[in-house]
Amino acid sequence: MKNTALNDTHTALGAKMVPFAGFNMPVQYEGVNAEHETVRSTVGVFDVSHMGEFLISGPNALDLIQKVSANDASTLTIGRAQYSYLPNDKGGIVDDLIIYKLKETQYLLVVNASNIEKDWNWISQHNSMQAEMRNLSEDYSLLAIQGPKAVEAMQSLTSVDLSAIKFYHFEVADFAGIENVIISATGYTGSGGFEIYCKNTEVKQIWDKVFEAGAAFGIKPIGLAARDTLRLEMGYCLYGNDINDTTSPIEAGLGWVTKFTKDFINADAIKKSKEDGVKNKLVAFELVDKGIPRHDYPIVDADGNQIGIVTSGTMSPSTKKAIGLGYVPKDKSTVDSEIYVQVRNKQLKAKVVKLPFYKA
Amino acid sequence: MNIPAELKYTKDHEWIKIDGDVATVGITAFAQNELGDIVYVEIETEGETLDQEEVFGSVEAVKTVSDLFMPVSGEVIEFNEALESAPETVNSDPYGDGWMVKIKLSNLAEVEALLSADDYKNLIG
């Protein structure tokens, strides 16, 4: 089991630590509902240093990225980031990721912790153009500073005008007394804020200064449990839950980051499935009856026949409604469609709704 | 961790308070802490007679769901209706207002085999 560079800090804060993707990670500090509310109303900080970072460089860097990812990275300019995914050659998804254009011939790929080795091998295997690849995952830390007060609370830590960094843009600048930190206006909560990439040796200083600067705003540490409820209220996919090696990117609703203006792995088959139409769709739903949907619970029709599966579910801390994502046949995927979730021995009525579940 | 000496316990992290042939049952401070924020307690077995270790309900936390097991055999004669609107009481007062059901015992001999506070303390380490 690996530790992030902040392991002692989390333990000292009384965090409940759990194994996640090979790391000891803080799942909660004071409680998931309170932490969720902190991010929705003010500002909270997540240590998500388990995430993986690959640096792809050289004259062929873009060629490699274009081949392995579905979105069009040629549209990126320096200082911009892009959400994308790595399709496999069997119709499924290797991982989803964010691609940062750092320099004219240098990109940073940020991947899920559970997939670091798989992604590295997959990308390496397709690197026939011999782009330079470096796995920085072990040396870099990532803090997500999220919430409506993030800009105001963090401004004193940097010479960059934080309010001027647009969504999915970033600056490489000074932050909390450290030079060359990536300050990225991205996140997985829907409440705004930043993600800060720095070296493991720098992260403790940054963490401490972030909490000093945020004290007046009620800044708090936030665990993985609230990270999950926050992302689910937005309907953001979680790899391993909502998408995996066998899910179709079109069924998963990733058509918007699938660009057929360029060639990439499995592009022809994905294009065909988009044109022919897919059987199922990943939808958002709310329970009408009382109960809570969970990952892998069956979705059934009024007669109890299984028609789909729940991929994520929880009680929404913001709306107090039981919410979920799941795959259903296309004819049940329109808003207000009535579906049922099999919760142990009961069929609970649910209805398909529009995302997000909560407007942050 | 709070483990009141006057209660009995099960390996499934329930506490039980015996008063004649009626027992009050809830989950321990350790259990509520492991589950995290509790958002729903579902008990639909009122009036049913169940065996020891049978499921009498479930408790849903934000992140997980857990079954509730009968610490002893008996009839579920009452459930704590206050939990319907305030399930978080199980977190804040697990041995008091967060109680879950009352059971009319059908086999008093089963009480002997329940864990003492010391036994339970050793179990959770």
What is the element layout, followed by pairings?
The complex is a heterodimer of chains A (360) and B (125).
Chain A: E1 2-3, H1 7-12, E2 16-20, E3 23-28, H2 32-41, E4 44-47, E5 52-57, H3 61-68, E6 81-87, E7 93-103, E8 106-111, H4 116-125, E9 132-135, E10 140-146, H5 150-154, E11 170-175, E12 178-184, E13 193-199, H6 200-214, E14 220-221, H7 224-234, H8 267-276, E15 280-287, E16 298-300, E17 306-315, E18 322-329, E19 338-343, E20 346-353
Helix pairs in contact in A: 2-7
Chain B: E1 8-9, E2 14-19, E3 22-27, H1 29-35, E4 38-42, E5 49-50, E6 55-61, E7 65-69, E8 74-79, H2 82-85, H3 89-92, E9 101-105, H4 117-124
Antiparallel strand pairs in B: 1-2, 2-3, 3-9, 4-6, 5-8, 6-7, 8-9
Question: Would you kindly provide a written description of the structure presented here, covering whatever features stand out?
Answer:
The complex is a heterodimer of chains A (360) and B (125). With 360 residues, chain A is of the alpha+beta class. Chain A folds into three domains: 2-48 and 138-233, Gyrase A, domain 2 (2-Layer Sandwich), CATH 3.30.1360.120; 52-115, Alpha-Beta Plaits; 280-360, Aminomethyltransferase beta-barrel domains (Elongation Factor Tu (Ef-tu), domain 3, Beta Barrel), CATH 2.40.30. Chain A contains eight helices and 20 strands. The longest helix of chain A is centred in the middle third of the chain and has 15 residues, at 200-214. The radius of gyration of chain A is 21 Å and the shape is globular. The relative contact order of chain A is 0.15. In chain B, 18% of the residues lie in helices and 35% in strands. The model of chain B has no long low-confidence stretch (mean pLDDT 95). Chain B has a single domain (8-115), classed as OB fold (Dihydrolipoamide Acetyltransferase, E2P), CATH 2.40.50. The longest helix of chain B is centred in the C-terminal third of the chain and has 8 residues, at 117-124.
